[in-house]
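Entry: 1-deoxy-D-xylulose-5-phosphate synthase
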Amino acid sequence: LDSVRFRPMTLPDRFIDHNTQDAQYREAGLDATAIAATALHALGLDESAHPQIKATIGLKA
């Protein structure tokens, strides 16, 4: 298990203003884009090298 990469992704320990769930997750860095970016980073991959992944998670190519 030495090669397992773990990145905890939790709500920050600060107040997040009332808003829609999507907006609150985005502000906390827990939306699909942020999760995918964290996963790619943990794997040592650069987002810009994977246009199909970027398109899937809604990032501009």
